[in-house]
Write a structure and sequence with these properties.
10 helices, mainly alpha, single chain, 211 residues
Length: 211
């Protein structure tokens, strides 16, 4: 079975999940906004700690840094799993990918009130499924640019990710990469519930709008 893991490896996998969660819990958006002099990003715009809300402060530089660091921690967690679990690298990477996104969305340092996981998810996708990751980054950029709405890009890219993983695997439902892609996409889409509602009623703010 693809997901069979011997009992001796269970503790190692638990350690990887914990490490990935703690990496994901680092609130780079909050740290960068404070160090950058714009204060607590949770007190502006949507109150989110992600790059989109940092952009609402008016600082493109700090928003770009937040995006890069949040993407970086996603890729870094997957890389750590690969290094520390060479016997079961694919399973370890998949587990790390899921838990680093969970850590970003529900960080222990911020009373489990974090971001929506988009940038971290993009970083994970590039590390875990490079070709599909590049494609969903392009989808994210194109959809966000055309709509001028960040959430449209996010939703389009993470609806597409598991589909692309499935297609690129040769339509193989048994590929172990499909499971983390599905779980992470579901988490991110679920975190966009209010955005989906605002899109449906036409009140979702444009990129950079201070709402």
């Amino acid at each position: 079975m693809i997901w069979h893991i011997p009992s001796f490896a269970i503790s190692l996998m638990c350690g990887i999940a914990f490490l990935a969660y703690m990496i994901g819990s680092i609130p780079f958006g909050l740290v960068i906004s404070i160090l950058g002099g714009i204060g607590d990003v949770r007190k502006i715009g949507s109150g989110n700690i992600g790059a989109t809300n940092v952009l609402r402060s008016g600082s493109k530089k700090l928003a770009a840094l937040t995006l890069l660091f949040d993407m970086g921690k996603g890729a870094f967690a997957v890389f750590c799993a690969y290094i520390y679990c060479v016997s079961f690298p694919m399973q370890a990477e998949a587990l790390a990918a899921i838990f680093v996104v969970i850590g970003h969305c529900f960080p222990v340092w911020l009373k489990f009130k974090g971001g929506k996981g988009v940038a971290t998810g993009l970083g994970v996708s590039l590390a875990l499924t490079p070709i599909a990751g590049i494609l969903i980054c392009l989808i994210w950029l194109i959809a966000a640019k055309l709509s001028k709405i960040s959430s449209v890009g996010a939703l389009a890219s993470f609806v597409a990710w598991p589909i692309l993983v499935f297609i690129l695997s040769g339509f193989n439902l048994q590929t172990p990469l499909l499971f983390p892609a599905l779980v992470i996409s579901i988490i991110i889409i679920w975190r966009h519930q209010m955005n989906i509602y605002r899109l449906s009623v036409g009140t979702e703010p444009k990129i950079g709008e201070k709402k």
